[in-house]
Specification:
Largest sheet: 5 strands, mixed
Number of helices: 42
Distance between the termini: 121 Å
Shape: elongated
Structural class: mainly alpha
Helix content: 55-70%
Radius of gyration: 40 Å
Number of strands: 10
């Protein structure tokens, strides 16, 4: 090259100012330092172009100050020749040991960075040349680091030799460049996305004896990574991101080829197919890499795609929220890569169409974004207008992205929030003032987002009204985290990571391709449904338990997608009803029953009785019967609970259904318990009955109610004993009662049925657990206290060994209640008991519906007192409180206004109790619950707002308290 020709190719003479000198003092400081070390004609020539750069970029100014001679040499050389020199010197580093290689690699990166920035900002290289220079250096640096690390392994005698030629330094080990490095589109301060694989058989040929293949591959990967990204006083070369390998959360950083191929064939996702569009070998065994990528061609480029697969590819695009044209956009703080209208939208726009069309059209498979966009346009799939808009936007956004990163060598894609810092980016981008620069960026982003919204515009959206919901890739998407935060999730990162793990097939429900396709559509609906509950955290967390317990997911996810109202109800149940959620988590198949049209009807007692008898008959032994009854109870309790949550069951219906369910459990287990007593002690002639009291007796049970029971027996012969053990009647029926209590209350592998309380029997805990028929009559004739008689008003026979004994037991109960008693004394006893309760067990708060003045206890006491007071004269006896009040009112045995007040307060508080017991359990505080639950509670109370419910409850209780004081006299 002639001296004159050489001068025309020198970088100094080709640079043009990128914009104004924003900080003249900073530029002058840089000049003084450089000038103090070396000053050449090239520096003088280039200074008008260097001053704007050093006045805006602290990083580039620091590179100049750190090594002025290096700057002078760059300016005096042809930039293309200088790049070739940098790459050649990088390759020479491969001959060094790792300790010796670290410093030269970093200094070469500094030189490359300074050269690239000056050529970019000075208008010498276009975008392709800039990204190409960065990528070629990244390739050279990885290759040199690999060979250097391999030399270290050879010195450590873990390798027997270094490979040669296409087999690379370590045969079998290879590195695949992904993302922008793979497409030669690397940005200025980018990390590099690489995936490391190895062929165990090829690698084994060079390993020393006793060296484990997997451990060596991982160690070598770590050595290469450390050499590339460890920070020293000279900086770093590149950050290496190894997370695009198969399922990075559960696989080592170097993955065996067979395992990788199995992963991609079984659970590989469409976004991973998209990532492989740009994949190429960048270091290591090129032969093994070519074979590996060749195996993946059918996975990446599918010639036959069904509708579901195409829709799932569409989802990559549809997860990003397409905004309305008139929505406000600000350049301040905008993410030019991941934000609305950013670079990612252009890439997704191209890649989704490539995945659909590239299987049959190889000319559409270019790894480079703009080349692929041009090919799609040439083939008629993208309009010329869209192509031109997106091409211009891509060039502009990538150029500004580089300038952002040139400020401080940070891997960021966000324009600064502050005007002062954003002005620095503008100064590296041209002469336009900040306002014009911001306006141009805004127009560009809006243009991209509008074009993006045109793609698959008629498809179902997978974003949210709150924003984008993107779960592709290995990083949490910033826009998605912001969306999840707006939706009310307290830990957006956890939600994002969980959903991405499901996309990876970490649960059985998404282990198949079809399961993952369905989940892609279900995920945004899940998040929206959880948000609508007002309690998104518990809703999502309990859904995790439920979803993780599924053995398969295709049918259920299809059901949820086809019946969105059912899905919303399930999520609502998960959010507000821990007990029901636990049932779903333990037995997800419970949802199958919800599809049955009869699910929201009352329990058909006759049909369920036949079903439970059939299933218990097939059970193996007493324990088997206990387990079977628990399974049936769980199914039916879930059903009633969901009915309460959905508002399809009134409190009266729910109370009756819960009681019917308890009756069925007792009917199934009492014969089994009696058979156990007979097995242990031998047969005994006589009858026994199970009497329900309390909420079960009055058929007013709610979720979690315990059972108040009493057993009555009558021996055929008072002197009879059991055949085997010679037990008398008390012992025999005592054993029966104990076995029944165990059958109903003992926890098994299938859980627990009920807490059982036997304290309402005569003599309470002091007497025998089973009560003889004669002792019952004698006790209630003379010894029973008023509170025991009140409890007896709710007694009913649930099961008996004979219809005759059922009638006898029910007759004995009624005879005890109809004995004449002193009304004044009874009233005084009731008042005293109520006062004692108020003193010793005051209400726990305004939502203590049982113990508050005017609450359920007041109303129960009033109804029970009135029945005792009038029973001797033939007054009505009803175990159910509402029925008793209605009968007493109809018989005009109490003032109509008082009965109406008691009945109204009873219905209201029962309606609320059923929902509160299903959702919150004991000691609820609805005032602190989400508004969505307060709305459910208000609906149950027959009003529109929670404040109205609080007023309605206060008024009803005040009226009930007044009525209680009026009638209990």
């Amino acid at each position: 090259m002639s001296p004159e020709g050489s001068r025309t190719q020198r970088l100094a003479g080709r640079l043009r100012p990128c914009g104004p000198v924003l900080d003249a003092k900073a530029a002058e400081r840089a000049r003084e330092i450089v000038e103090g070390a070396v000053w050449t004609a090239e520096l003088e020539t280039a200074w008008p172009a260097l001053a704007p750069v050093f006045g805006a970029s602290p990083y580039l100014a620091s590179l100049a100050r750190r090594d002025p001679p290096r700057l002078a040499l760059l300016l005096a050389d042809d930039p293309d020749a200088r790049l070739a020199s940098i790459l050649a010197r990088t390759a020479e580093v491969a001959a060094l040991t790792p300790d010796a290689a670290a410093a030269p690699l970093r200094l070469l990166k500094q030189e490359l960075h300074l050269l690239t920035a000056l050529c970019d900002l000075g208008g010498v290289w276009d975008l392709d040349q800039v990204t190409g220079a960065l990528t070629h250096f990244a390739d050279a640096a990885v290759a040199a680091s690999l060979e250097s690390a391999a030399r270290g392994e050879l010195d450590a005698e873990r390798l027997t030799r270094l490979g040669d030629g296409d087999e690379g330094p370590v045969p079998g080990w290879f590195c695949i460049a992904m993302g922008k490095q793979g497409a030669f589109e690397l940005n200025y301060s980018s990390d590099i996305d690489v995936s490391v694989f190895f062929d165990p058989d090829r690698m084994a040929t060079v390993l020393a004896e006793g060296v484990e293949i997997q451990a060596f591959a991982v160690r070598l990967t770590h050595r290469v990574s450390e050499l590339m990204q460890a920070k020293t006083p000279d900086g770093y070369v590149f950050r290496m991101d190894l997370r695009l390998r198969p399922d990075p959360s559960s696989t080592p950083p170097a993955v065996p080829v067979p395992a990788a191929l199995e992963y991609y064939e079984t659970v590989g996702q469409n976004w991973e197919r998209a990532a492989f569009i740009k994949a190429r070998a960048c270091a290591g065994d090129r032969t093994a890499a070519a074979a590996f990528l060749g195996e993946l061609v059918p996975y990446i480029w599918r010639k036959n795609l069904d509708f579901a697969a195409i829709a799932d590819i569409h989802s990559i695009k549809r997860q990003i929220h397409a905004h309305k044209v008139d929505e406000r956009v600000s350049a301040k703080g905008v993410d030019l890569k991941l934000g609305r209208g950013g670079i990612r939208e252009i890439e997704f726009y191209v890649q989704t169409q490539q995945l659909i069309l590239g299987g049959r059209h190889p000319d559409l498979r270019s790894p480079r974004t703009l080349d692929a966009l041009a090919a799609l346009s040439a083939a008629g799939h993208v309009s010329v207008g869209a192509r031109d808009d997106l091409t211009a936007a891509y060039d502009r956004l990538r150029a500004v992205e580089h300038r952002i990163q040139m400020l401080d060598d940070e891997q960021t894609h966000k324009l600064p929030e502050s005007d002062a810092d954003r002005r620095r980016v503008a100064a590296l981008s041209g002469d336009a003032p900040l306002r014009s620069f911001d306006a141009e960026i805004t127009r560009t982003l809006k243009t991209v987002n509008a074009r993006y919204g045109e793609l698959f515009a008629e498809e179902e959206q997978l974003s949210s009204r709150f924003g984008s919901l993107v779960f592709t890739g290995v990083d949490d998407d910033p826009e998605t985290l912001a969306t999840l935060k707006r939706m009310g999730f307290s830990n957006p990162q956890q939600v994002s990571q969980t959903i991405r793990s499901w996309h990876h097939g970490h649960v059985a429900a998404t282990r198949t391709e079809r399961g993952r396709e369905l989940f892609t559509r279900l995920a945004p609906r899940l998040l929206e449904a959880a948000q609508r509950t007002g309690a998104p955290d518990p809703a999502f967390n309990r859904f995790c338990d439920f979803f993780g317990g599924l053995s398969t997911g295709v049918q259920l996810q299809s059901l949820f997608l086809s019946q969105p109202k059912l899905f919303e109800l399930v999520v609502q149940v998960l959010a507000f009803a821990p007990r029901l959620a636990a049932t779903l988590g333990r037995r997800p198949a419970a949802i199958d029953a919800m599809v049955d049209p009869d699910f929201f009807e009352e329990i058909d007692v006759a049909a369920e009785r036949a079903d439970i008898a059939r299933r218990v008959a097939r059970a193996e032994g007493f324990e088997g019967a206990m387990d079977e009854v628990r399974r049936i109870h769980r199914e039916q309790a879930f059903r009633v609970g969901v009915q309460v949550m959905s508002g399809s069951a009134t409190a009266e219906m729910a109370g009756r259904d819960f009681a019917d369910l308890a009756d069925l459990c007792i009917e199934a287990l009492a014969p089994a318990a009696l058979a156990e007593a007979e097995r242990m002690g031998g047969a005994f002639p006589g009858d026994v009955a199970v009497v329900a009291l309390g909420k079960c007796g009055s058929r007013e049970m709610s979720a979690g109610s315990d059972l108040d029971l009493m057993t009555l027996y009558r021996a055929a012969d008072p002197t009879a004993v059991s055949e085997l053990k010679g037990w008398d009647a008390s012992t025999y029926y005592g054993r029966f009662t104990q076995r029944l209590i165990a059958a109903l209350s003992s926890p098994t592998a299938e859980g627990q049925l009920y807490e059982v309380d036997m304290q309402l029997r005569p003599s309470g805990t002091k007497g025998p657990v089973a009560v003889s028929f004669a002792a019952f009559g004698h006790y209630y004739e003379g010894e029973a206290e008023t509170w025991e008689l009140l409890a007896l008003t709710r007694a009913r026979v649930v099961w008996s060994t004979s219809t005759a004994f059922t009638a006898a037991a029910q007759g004995a109960i009624e005879a005890a209640l109809r004995r004449r008693r002193d009304r004044r004394k009874t009233a005084a006893d009731v008042r005293e008991m109520r006062q004692l309760l108020e003193d010793e067990r005051p209400p726990k708060g305004p939502w203590d519906l049982k113990l508050s003045p005017g609450g359920l206890v007041d109303i129960e006491f009033a109804a029970q007192f009135l029945q005792l007071a009038h029973a001797a004269d033939g007054g009505p006896l009803q175990a159910n409180t509402a029925a008793a009040l209605a009968a007493l009112g109809a018989a005009e045995l109490a003032p109509a206004e008082a009965v109406a007040a008691l009945s109204d307060a009873w219905r209201l508080q029962q309606d609320l109790t059923q929902l509160l017991k299903v959702a919150l359990g004991s000691d609820p505080d609805p005032a602190s619950e989400p508004k969505a639950f307060q709305a459910l509670l208000s609906r149950a109370g027959g009003v529109k707002t929670f404040k109205a419910l609080e007023r309605r409850l206060a008024e009803a209780r005040a009226a009930a308290r007044k009525a209680y004081l009026e009638v209990v006299t």
